[in-house]
Amino acid sequence: MALRWNIENCKDFEGLTTDEEWAITDALIWATMSIGINEITKKNLKKVFTRIRIDENLSGSYLTRGKKRYFIKIEDVEKRVGMHTNATRYTDTQFLKRYYK
Are strands 63-65 and 68-70 parallel, antiparallel or unpaired? Predict the structure, then answer.
């Protein structure tokens, strides 16, 4: 199944498609599959960031800029409130279980 996404509900969705911001937007779109959260809302913002931080700390950063690793910041996630994808959702237990195996 193809990954479908939409950022039109983000506050500045056109700004998220500029060269510099698009790399982060693209990484977060694909991250929804790893973290098991398919939308970013004001309510789940911290949870999304926490899962991303866990995933990046255990698996490596989603992005590199030049030769430096770039770890997603909470501000990056906050800019994308309103984004959603068709990624499968995971409960907290399902998410954490992936790392224990």
Answer: antiparallel
